[in-house]
Design goal:
Helix 5 packs parallel to helix 10 and helix 16 packs across helix 20. Helix 9 links the parallel strand 5 and strand 6. The chain is an alpha/beta fold. A six-stranded mixed beta sheet has the order 11-12-16-15-13-14, with helices on both faces. It has a five-stranded mixed beta sheet with strand order 1-10-9-7-8.
């Protein structure tokens, strides 16, 4: 594992690194000292440091995982679907992509995406992951598979595997229903759970070498808890929290990990949700190697890349095995929280969007899209004085609010497998504005960058895209459908952003691909 830092950055980072070493933060982390982040964070931290021991404590899970994997193979089951949100799905997705073992990730409530996952059930096993057991998305996905298995003449208890905290409602209910249950470590928060049951069970069932993953993390754990200038986690934590910019602190970073597919998305949740609170935070911006921002890095931004080469244009590069890098970034994020005087283990603003969504589900009539219809696109805005009723007017007014500190967040509540073309909007907005642009699939991002959007610096400009799904899907024993649920989640988040004084343009597309082509022209003009 290596971390390389551009020489020009080191003089500014050295005093910060010295501060961390003098306070013995790394070794105190290794000892699970819950006082590092102050008295206000102590109660939460006391039950969120189990990840420090995960490389070793999770080894005990391996025999049971492999036994179940072999059982499924004997049944002819070779397709693993994971139902989970945020920390329950991002790490398994990274492991699957980087070990060549496909896991079908269902982290959406888009009815067409759910239907695309509930298929080939004769060869499918489903992992349902929820720390609390109360996540509405995961509960709804579980119900969809239960209905699907029953319709196919398959006992759901033979194919559904549950990961949850001991004693959660999902734990109690699943055991009563005869499901196989893996209990996760209750002292690990979701975004730090890569090397726990949440990351290992789905990856192991899919065939990944989880023993090597844990072994690589164990090899570096001693070094990451050392109070030394040789500790890469201290340098990375210092760079995230305290890298000076031109007349300001750099509070955003571009991260390009094409050589480690999916890792940037995992880092995005870890850092954004851990630091984005009290109107402070660090914004991760996941980019490709051709991103416009790389050519001219904004002054409030640093550039971090997964690469074995020495830094050239990038400020920081990192490399190593996947298990090592999970642990590196977890340590670095906890250290950054110390430097920023932020509790890196809570997420106080995540619940607000959930509450708003539930309220809207109780009033279905409110889900009808407000605003003006312009060439088939319904346009609504929040916190903006848009002159006119066109898509162009709304986008122009939003972008006119941009400053040298702003970022743009593009949020798309459509089926990720069906509409990957929407991801190109990120680069188009970045080229147009010269500002960092994040892209999120809704409702997945609500369990990731959603905390930063509401709790971090009020710098965001938000473009929300919803659309026609073509089909809806009822949810067993629930008074709402998947289509109603995803509309409520989008509308609820827009409402909470607006209530926080943040500007939002919401676009509802009846024909997503046709309307995307039009939107691209509007942005680029």
């Amino acid at each position: 594992m290596q971390l390389r830092i551009q020489e020009s950055l080191k003089p500014d980072l050295e005093p910060v690194v010295a501060k961390v070493i003098d306070a013995q933060i790394a070794s105190r982390l290794g000892d699970k000292d819950d006082s590092i982040w102050g008295s206000a964070a102590k109660v939460e931290a006391s039950k969120r440091l189990g990840w420090i021991d995960s490389p070793k404590s999770s080894v005990d899970l391996i025999p049971e995982i492999l036994k179940l994997r072999d059982h499924f193979r004997d049944l002819g089951v070779d397709r693993i679907v994971l139902c989970g949100m945020g920390g329950s799905s991002l790490a398994p997705e990274v492991i699957g992509k980087n070990t060549g073992h496909e896991i079908v990730i269902l982290d959406s409530t888009a009815p067409d995406q759910v239907l695309s996952a509930v298929r080939e059930l004769q060869r499918t096993a489903v992992v349902v992951s929820s720390k609390s057991g109360a996540t509405v998305e995961t509960d709804s996905q579980k119900r969809a598979f239960e209905s699907g298995f029953l319709a196919a003449g398959i006992d759901p208890a033979e194919r559904i595997v549950v990961i949850t905290d001991p004693g959660s409602p999902l734990d109690t209910e699943s055991r009563a229903d005869g499901y196989k249950v893996f209990n996760a470590d209750p002292d690990v928060g979701g975004r730090y759970s890569a090397l726990t049951a949440f990351g290992l069970v789905p990856a192991g069932l899919a065939g990944a070498d989880i023993s090597s993953l844990l072994a690589s993390a164990s090899r570096v754990s001693f070094g990451l808890s050392a109070d030394s200038t040789d500790n890469p986690a201290i340098w990375l934590g210092a760079a995230l929290a305290a890298t000076p910019g031109i007349g300001q602190v750099r509070d955003k970073f571009l991260i390009e990990t094409e050589g480690l597919p999916g890792f940037g998305d995992w880092v995005e949740q870890l850092v954004a949700e851990s630091t984005g609170k009290q109107q402070r935070g660090i914004l991760p911006v996941v980019v490709s190697s051709s991103a416009p921002e790389i050519q001219d890095v904004p002054s409030d931004t640093i550039f971090i890349r997964f690469s074995d080469s020495m830094p050239v244009a990038e400020h920081i590069t990192f490399s190593g095995g996947l298990g090592e890098l999970f642990l590196l970034w977890e340590y670095a994020t906890a250290i950054a929280g110390y430097l920023m005087q932020i509790n890196p283990f809570d997420q106080p603003d995540v619940e607000s969007a959930k509450i708003a969504s539930r309220a809207l589900l109780d009033s279905p009539a409110v889900l009808v899209s407000p605003g003006h219809v312009d060439r088939g696109i319904t346009v609504a805005s929040y916190g903006l004085n848009v002159v006119g009723s066109t898509v162009e007017a709304a986008i122009e007014e939003l972008l006119s609010q941009a400053t040298d500190h702003s970022y743009i967040a593009v949020q798309v509540y459509l089926s990720r497998p069906e509409y990957p073309q929407f991801e190109k909007l990120r680069d188009i907005f970045a080229k147009r504005t010269g500002r960092p642009v994040t892209f999120g699939w809704g409702p997945r991002f609500l369990h990731s960058t959603g905390q930063y959007h509401k709790g971090g610096p009020k710098q965001g400009l938000f473009v929300q895209i919803t659309g026609e799904h073509g089909i809806d899907l009822e949810i067993k024993d629930r008074p709402f459908s998947f289509g109603e649920l995803i509309r409520a989640q989008a509308a609820g988040d827009a409402r909470v952003l607006s209530d926080n004084g943040l500007p939002v343009v919401s676009l509802f597309m009846k024909e997503p691909l046709r309307d995307l082509a039009f939107l691209e022209k509007v942005i680029a003009s």
